[in-house]
């Protein structure tokens, strides 16, 4: 997506001061992992400090409601399990009893 390309250029060129909210893109349901989002994430990780946790509106330290998980864990789950969930949805087989 072009938006991730633009965001990557902004991060790489240090054109704006990035807010902690940036990490919500890569740790929740804002978007699904793609090659362009992964490239942008790689630029962000190398250019910016990854906070330990994200602070959500009520002041609790969590990532998209996942209390007890660090931001790095939330990012890894976003990368790994989003694709796994898609594969599971596409490859759902009905039990043989239902197909007879």
Question: Count of helices?
Answer: 4
Give the biggest sheet.
2 strands, antiparallel
The mean pLDDT is 77
Radius of gyration: 17 Å
Tell me the structural class.
mainly alpha
Percentage beta strand: under 5%
User: Roughly how much helix do the residues carry, as a percent range?
Assistant: 40-55%
Shape by Cα distribution:
globular
Query: Distance N terminus to C terminus?
Result: 44 Å
Low-confidence stretches: 58-66
How many β-strand stretches? 2
Instruction: Give the total of domains.
Output: 1
Spatial ordering of strands, largest sheet: 1-2
Order of helices and strands: HHEEHH
Summarize the structure.
The chain has 100 residues and is mostly helical. It has helices at 2-12, 35-47, 71-90, 96-99; strands spanning 62-63, 66-67.
Describe this structure in words.
This protein has 100 residues and is mainly alpha-helical. The longest helix is centred in the last third of the chain and has 20 residues, at 71-90. It contains four helices and two strands, in the order H-H-E-E-H-H. The radius of gyration is 17 Å and the shape is globular. The chain has one domain (2-93). A hairpin with a 2-residue loop joins strand 1 and strand 2. The model is unreliable at 58-66 (pLDDT under 50). Helix content is 48%, strand content 4%. The chain has a two-stranded antiparallel ribbon.
Question: How does the SSE layout of this entry go?
Answer:
Layout: H1 2-12, H2 35-47, E1 62-63, E2 66-67, H3 71-90, H4 96-99
Antiparallel strand pairs: 1-2
């Amino acid at each position: 997506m072009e938006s991730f390309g633009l965001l990557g250029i902004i991060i790489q060129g240090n054109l704006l001061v990035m807010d902690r909210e940036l990490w919500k893109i890569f740790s929740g349901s804002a978007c699904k992992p793609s090659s362009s989002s992964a490239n942008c994430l790689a630029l962000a990780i190398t250019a910016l400090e990854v906070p330990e946790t994200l602070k959500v509106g009520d002041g609790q330290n969590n990532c998209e409601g996942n209390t007890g998980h660090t931001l790095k864990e939330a990012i890894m789950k976003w990368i790994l399990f989003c694709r796994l969930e898609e594969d599971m949805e596409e490859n759902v087989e009905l039990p043989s009893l239902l197909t007879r």
